[in-house]
TrEMBL record:
PANTHER family attached to this UniProt entry: [3-METHYL-2-OXOBUTANOATE DEHYDROGENASE [LIPOAMIDE]] KINASE, MITOCHONDRIAL, PYRUVATE DEHYDROGENASE KINASE
Residues covered by the Histidine kinase domain: 365-537
Record bears the keyword Transit peptide: no
Keyword Protein biosynthesis: no
Record Pfam families: BCDHK_Adom3, HATPase_c
Enzyme Commission designation: 2.7.11.-
Name of the molecule in the record: Protein-serine/threonine kinase
Length: 540
């Protein structure tokens, strides 16, 4: 039976919502889920039924449930066609339809970063390409060192709109980095045991990396010297970003299925390294895509496949005046909604630290949003489950005084060896030591962390799974296991519980640009989490 997601206008009145539901029922529909984060509901009809929901006053959009990804991909393809020669033939770019926002909110509400196989399915069925078939350039490229990436690299081309020469320079810089990065990941996958790489999920990722490298290799032998080349190259980057959206959940599911053939230590090392490599690769590609779109005439932020706000403080995907207090409050509202849905209790939080609203620094908003969301999930959940929901979670934002770095040794989070990545993941480069950073402390009264568990909070261990769990993805006895939790997200789990992978993923984002996370637990009382972030300094 066909189901539809009905989204009403933002200013729709309760009477209009009730009228829409009434008409849907009169047409033979059955009301299903009703959404709280947006005005809308799901309705199911019998086969061959005719519905006229679009004509109802107050209805903004009617979307066939189950085809949201097809709608999104079709819109994405249409948007990419719209950028053919945008710098020579300025035309208003079409903003994404409201159905995309509808699905994005529904998708986020049900499971943060919920993955989908839709964007890669057409490539995942392709068999492995032989070395003779594609020339196998990966080994030669993988022998080249990875560029030490920093935030300064990503903002060096200036503020948008960029000149034609600056845009071409950004494209050439991006092209110089990505093939080598992809080749390193292909070689890392090849170095896994054959029985592991033969797993369908891991094989999908391997094929995706092979395909992405093959689309970039033809560009290596040429110079991006005109705007037409830059436009076509941007299309290739947009496809690459889309292809690798769900890499981590798919890999986690594959390793979960292969846990009998590879040790937990090897899985932790591979996933941790792959995560950091993926952060850099995706950031490089998304930065150029955002610079491209923000440099086009009649700039439409909604037309970009990557976040690209129309704000003078943004350089691509980097906000040079990011306000961490605003991010904390936004993420707090989101996590509180989830907590209220699952527990019926809405935790409270307080932001302090001098004048937190005045604190700004240059950083990637998407990264900070992910880190803060995961840390607040842990704090809110512990607070509620420990019966301390009357005690607010206290978030302290402490900007580092610029002069302090010249008067004393560089302040670093002192983490025990087992709490840090014991490898040079993706050759992380430190930033300018004179750039002031920000430390965020999240303090909860959730009872703390059991000392027996504390040493393992950074790992992707899956030793708690039993043989009885072989047929599950991400459920059963492994609910608190990090690897199983990642796989559970891929299966549509909507619970706030079981998201134990948040700490290692958040640590990867924080450490990538020289920051870090430290956890201090007072068992029986609560937990303090210190998030240290290093900015890029003042950007003219």
């Amino acid at each position: 039976m066909p189901s539809y997601i009905v989204t009403l206008k933002d200013d729709a009145t309760p009477e209009q919502i009730a009228a829409a539901k009434k008409q849907a029922k009169e047409q033979g529909g059955t009301i299903g889920h009703e959404y709280d984060l947006l005005k809308g509901f799901q309705v199911t009809y019998k086969e061959d039924s005719v519905q006229t929901l679009n004509s109802i006053d107050g209805v903004k959009d009617v979307e066939l449930d189950g085809e949201a990804f097809a709608i999104r991909n079709a819109q994405y393809a249409a948007d990419m066609k719209c950028i053919l020669n945008p710098l020579r033939l300025p035309k208003p770019l079409k903003a994404p339809s409201s159905s995309i926002l509808t699905f994005a909110l529904r998708r986020t509400y049900s499971s943060y970063h919920h993955p989908s196989d839709a964007s890669v399915s057409h490539r995942q069925q392709r068999p492995h390409r032989s070395r003779a078939e594609d020339g196998d350039d990966a080994p030669a490229l993988a022998r080249q060192p990875i560029h030490l990436l920093s935030l300064a690299d990503l903002v060096k081309h200036g503020r948008p709109p960029l000149s034609a020469e600056a845009l071409l320079s950004s494209a050439r810089f991006t092209l110089s980095l990505l093939p080598i990065r992809l080749a390193h990941r292909i070689q890392a996958l090849r170095n896994l045991p054959y029985i592991v790489v033969s797993n369908p999920n891991i094989s999908k990722i391997y094929n995706n990396y092979q395909h992405s490298l093959s689309t970039l290799l033809p560009w290596q032998g040429r110079t991006i010297s005109n705007l037409e080349d830059e436009i076509r190259f941007t299309e290739v980057l947009a496809e690459l970003v889309q292809t690798h959206t769900d890499t981590i959940p798919i890999l986690a599911r594959g390793f979960l299925e292969c846990r009998k053939y590879i040790s937990a230590t090897e899985v932790t090392r591979f996933l941790d390294e792959h995560l950091r490599a993926r952060i850099g690769t995706r950031l490089v590609a998304e930065q150029h895509i955002a610079l491209h779109f923000s440099s086009t005439p009649h700039f439409d932020p909604g037309a970009s496949p990557t976040p690209c706000p129309e704000n003078p403080s943004y350089i691509g995907v980097i906000d040079t005046a990011l306000r961490p207090a605003a991010t904390v409050n936004s993420c707090g509202e989101f996590v509180a909604d989830i907590c209220e849905l699952n527990y019926g209790v809405r935790p409270r939080w307080v932001v302090d630290g001098g004048d937190p609203d005045a604190t700004t620094f240059a950083f990637v908003p998407m990264h900070l949003e992910y880190i803060v969301t995961e840390l607040l999930k842990n704090a809110f959940r512990a607070t509620v489950e420990n019966g301390m929901n009357r005690e607010p979670v206290v978030i302290t934002i402490a900007p580092e005084p610029p002069a302090s770095r010249t008067n004393r040794p560089d302040a670093q989070l002192s983490l025990p060896a087992e709490s840090r990545g014991a490898f040079s993941a993706d050759a992380i480069a430190p930033l300018d030591d004179n750039a002031p950073g920000v430390t965020i402390r999240i303090r909860d009264r959730g009872g703390g962390i059991n000392p027996d568990v504390l040493p393992h909070v950074w790992g992707y261990s899956f030793t708690t799974f039993s043989d009885a769990d072989d047929d599950m993805p991400g459920g059963g006895g492994g609910g608190d296991d990090a690897l199983g939790a990642i796989s559970a997200v891929n299966s549509g789990s909507s619970s706030i519980a079981g998201l134990g992978y948040g700490l290692p993923l958040s640590r990867a984002y924080a450490e990538y640009f020289g920051g870090g996370i430290e956890v201090q637990s007072l068992y029986g009382w609560g937990t303090d989490v210190y998030l240290r972030l290093k900015g890029v300094g003042k950007i003219e």
